[in-house]
Every structure is written in structure tokens, then in C-alpha cells.
Amino acid sequence: MPSSHSGDINFIAIWMFLIFVTVTLCITLWAARKTRSTNSFYTAGGNITGFQNGLAISGDFMSAASFLGISGLVFLSGFDGLIYSIGFLVGWPIILLLIAEPLRNLGKYGFSDVVSFRLNEKPVRILAAFGSLSTVVLYLIAQMVGAGKLIEILFGLPYITAEIIVGILMILYVTFGGMLATTWVQIIKAILLLFGATLIAFLVLNKFQFSFNQFFNMAVATHQNGIGIMAPGGLISDPVSAISLGLALMFGTAGLPHILMRFFTVSDAKQARRSVAFATGFIGYFYILTFIIGFGAIILVSNNPAYLSEGGIIRGNNNMAAIHLAHAVGGDVLLGFISAVAFATILAVVSGLTLAGASAISHDLYANVLNKGADDKSQMKISKYASVGLGIFAIILGIIFEKQNVAYMVGLAFAIAASTNFPILLLSIYWKKITTRGVLTGGSAGLITCILLVILGPIVWVEILNNKNAIFPYKYPALFSMSVTFIGIWFFSITDNSLQAKKERKLFNSQYMRSQIGKNITGILSK
Amino acid sequence: MSKQALLNKVVKTKQRIIRPLLFFTIAPYFTFIFVIAFYPQYFSNLILDSSVSTGIILGLLLIILIWVITLLYVYLTNKYVEPIIQEIDSA
């Protein structure tokens, strides 16, 4: 709450937020007039440029959780924060090299189009929709709970009011403006966030005449762990966790449905390629900024009584480090600006998630499974109902989970994305022998393994359910659940000798060529 | 060249670009993670007499490497793959 510094509400924050809402609602009105078909609803008409899409993708990735969470982690333990940043970033070359172009060339609205390209559409789409929806809902809960808490602190609004405001605005953006509005909200927010974070980092370094040596020396001298903040701490201690976390971070990104759907908003594979290159640039730059911000907070926040509560602990929690630092270097104006940007960030990210969820419901479950051959008008109607429904669902879940520790949910979302969505997408693009049976058995086995291992693991089983010992000893399940998926798909595909399987393998060559070139080349291939 | 031959050429060229770049993404990243898990003390070494550790320098270099890989991929694909696809279009 801005009141934590001056004793009254920070009106700058509120004004800036109101301006953001007004501008984005105007964009939504404009977008609503252009969004008349299902295609424009989910792909913005395919008219977004590579640069714009790069900004929007980086916006999806630079959530309030990653801005405040990673700078908070750096503030708390220094070097360990960098491990997460690098893990999140390294997923991008994987997407670029393996996924982005084939996805754009084969699909229409989402990755399920690619997986069901030559396989039995109905069951495969149901599995893909399940994978998408579980990832989206878990991510959504984490964002909604984080949002409510943050807005409570920054704007002094009651938790439930905050949930309802976020929910209603997100429903408005998505239902009326579809992908076009969601993309522009994300682009504006990405620019504001990059600008704000750059400004904080600049002001911090300015205090040290841009001498990194002096800057780091000061941080080491201030932090209670001293030189320990420059070295790996306790984040990863055993090799299994190391590989497991590494896998989830690296391959999870390539299975996030709200990220994957952005590749359909550009005109072709060439623009998809450019999008990733720009996105990687922005995201990497952003993580370097959060690193500077975290260290800056060690120096300027951790021993300034204005930001500490009675016991000498930082007000709010570690995630507030960046917010306090904004006040320390830029006063009420910068604090207000950053608060408004954090609010905007939450709105933009939950909108993207809702849109991805609506696509799984209306495009996969409704138009291709329940009511095959549904016309565009009814599909559009279902999309809007799904968006409103997901929005209300998100508000309710946000309220239910208020008192829960939901930090593990983002980890779980990444683990599911890495162990279900990513393997079925990767193998259906590149592996000739994959069959419907393999995808269904391997994919659902991986999904179930992943959820079970998280429930039986130390965070849920011990910390939340209060059992004494975890049945599954590791925090990160990805190594095991990914193995189950890959082995399951491999085994149940190669042993599949059905007629259907033979047909599916025969279609591989033309699918593969199309994934590489982006055109239907049936006329070109002679055999 | 026949269309079939051009198609094969696209696939071959792409593989030649993608494979080494994939290797230089995955290998350094997992080396980084493994050093943290097994030899954390190696990353605690300070550089010269500053407060900056090897771990931080290598971490930042990894971010730069990731940038270089994405830019290199876009550059190489536009230079070597796109012209073949254009040729397929006009053939």
C-alpha cells in the first residue's frame, strides 16, 4: 500500500492505473469491431508483426510473479535468483529451434491442431484440451491469488474487491476484444514494465556512478550472508532435483498453451521466427534488470527502517523488494508508476490465460469433438461463453485459495506443460512412428504421474497436508513424469500395428514437409 | 532442380543449422546446472579481487549465449533456407 510510506493512499498509482484501464478499454472497443469471426477472435486476424508479437510474448512471460518473484529471490539469496532467470530464458531457443515454425505451419489456433494433424482427432484433442486446461487453470489460480494479495498491499483494496476487479476487466478484454485486444494490452504493459524496470535499474546504478564493482561490493557488505550471495545457495542441493528443475524450466515454456497460441497471430513462419528472437531479447534484458533490482534492494531496502516492520523484516514480504526499491530511488511518483504497472501486468497475463483456456473449450472440445461441423457463429458464441465462464471461475478460485500457499502451482503448471503438452507436440512433429494409442497412453500417464508426484511430494504432502514425511522425496517431478510420457508414447506407439496406426505413419512425410515449408505440398510429392 | 530435390535440400539445410545450435543451448545449460548441484564451490570463486564470482559472470554469459543462438538461427535461416523455399514457390 502506498500508504505504507506516507500514511495516505498513493493517488499517483490510482490515476495511472485508471489511465491504463481507460486506454485499454478503448482498445478493446476498437478491437471488438474487428473481431467478427472465430479466426479473428483467436488469432487477431494473423496481422500482428514479428516485433509486436515478440513484445506480446515477452509480456506474457514477464508476469507480476516473475518481476516481483525473481527480484525478491535475488534480494533474498543473490545468485540463486539467476538460476531461475536462466532456466526460464533457455526455454526460448528450444521453442525457436524445434517448435515455433512447425507449429505455425501446421496449426490454426493452438498446439492441439498440430498433435491431431494425422492422428485420430477426437481422443487426441480431448487429451490436448485437458493438458491445456490444467496448465491454464493452475497458472490462473497462482496469478489471481498473487494479484489479490498485491493489490491489497499496493492499493489498500480488500482482497475480494481486487479479485472481482481483475476478473471483470479480464472478461471485458477477452470477450469483446479477443486476441487483438489481449495482444495490445500485453504490448502496452510490456513497454511500461520494461520502461519502469529500466528506470529503477538506472537510478540504482546511478547511485554508484555505474561502477559494478562498487555496486556488488556494497551489496556483499550489506547482506547478512556476505559474500555467500555471490555463490549457489540452497536452491538446488541434489542432482535429481537439479536435472528435474532444469528440465521443467527448459521444456515447460515450450508447452504453455497461452504462449504457443501467440504464434498464430503472425502471418507466417518467418514472422514467428522473428517473434521469438525479439521475445528472447526482451526477456533476457528484463532478467538482467531484475538481477540489478534485487541487488539494489539488498543495498537500499534491507537496512532502511522505512521499509522494515518492527522485527527488522521487510514489509509485505520478499516479493515487495522491487516495489520498495522503486520508492527508495524514485519516491512516490515511481512507486505509483510501478504499482500501476504491476496491476496492469496481472490483468494482461490473466487475459492471455483466459483466452487460451477458451480456445481449448470452444475450438477443441466444442467445435471438434462435441459438435463437429459447428458453424463459425456458434463457435464464436461458445468462445465468449467460455471466456465469461473462465473469468467467473477464476474469481471464485482466487477467493477459495486466498489463504493457501499457491507458489507451487506455477511449478506444477510448468511440470505438466513439460511432461504432457511438450512431449506430445514434439513427437507428433518429428517422430514418424507415433500413433494415437501411443499419444493417449503416454500423454495421460505423464499427466497423472506429474499430478500424483506433486501431491505426494514435500510441498503439498508435508507443508499443506501436514503429513510428517513426503512419500515422493523431490520437489520437482519433471524428470520422472517426462520419462513416463516419453517412454509411454514410444512403447505404445511401436507396438501399435493397427490399420489406423499404418495410416497415421503414411501421412507423416507430407505432414513433415508441410511443417518445414509451410505449404500444402501434396501436389508436389509424387509418392 | 526438381521440387522433390529442393524439398530435401530445405530439410537438410535446416537440420545443419538446428543441430549444432541445439547442442550449444542444451550442453552449456545443463553443465551450469550440474556445477551448481555438484561443485558449487567452483562458482563461488571470486574474480580478481572484486566481489563478483565466476558463477555470476558465467550466468550472465549464458544469457548472452542464448541471445546469440536465437539471432544466429534467424540470420542463418533467412540467409540459407528462405531462398530455397522461394525457389520452390517459383519452380
Characterization of this structure:
The complex is a heterodimer of chains A (527) and B (91). The N terminus and C terminus of chain A are likely disordered. Chain A is an all-alpha fold and 527 residues long. Chain A is 76% helix and 0% strand. Chain B is mostly helical. In chain B, helix 1 packs antiparallel against helix 3. The N and C termini of chain B lie close together (9 Å).
Keywords, please?
heterodimer, A: 527 residues, mainly alpha, 21 helices, globular, B: 91 residues
- Count the beta strands of chain B: 0
- Roughly how many Å is the radius of gyration of chain B? 20 Å
How big is the Rg of chain A?
A: 23 Å
Uncertain parts of chain A: 1-7, 522-527
Pair of chains with the largest interface and how many residues each contributes: A-B, 55 and 47 residues
Specify the helix fraction band of chain A.
over 70%
Major sheet attributes of chain B: none
**Large-scale geometry of chain B:** elongated
Secondary-structure class of chain A:
mainly alpha
**Overall pLDDT confidence of chain B:** 90
The SSE string of chain B, one letter per element, is HHH
- Regions with little confidence, pLDDT below 50 for 5+ residues of chain B: none
**Total beta strand runs of chain A:** 0
Q: How many domains of chain B?
A: 1
N-to-C order of helices and strands of chain A: HHHHHHHHHHHHHHHHHHHHH
Specify the structural class of chain B. Answer: mainly alpha
Concise synopsis of the structure shown:
The complex is a heterodimer of chains A (527) and B (91). Chain A is mostly helical and 527 residues long.
Topology:
The complex is a heterodimer of chains A (527) and B (91).
Chain A: H1 3-6, H2 11-34, H3 38-43, H4 50-61, H5 64-77, H6 79-106, H7 111-115, H8 121-155, H9 159-206, H10 212-222, H11 239-252, H12 257-260, H13 269-300, H14 321-370, H15 376-400, H16 407-430, H17 436-456, H18 458-464, H19 478-494, H20 499-506, H21 508-517
Helix pairs in contact in A: 2-9, 2-14, 4-9, 4-13, 5-6, 5-13, 5-14, 6-11, 6-13, 6-21, 8-9, 8-14, 8-15, 8-16, 8-17, 9-13, 9-14, 9-15, 10-13, 11-16, 13-14, 14-15, 16-17, 16-19, 17-19
Chain B: H1 3-38, H2 40-44, H3 54-90
Helix pairs in contact in B: 1-3
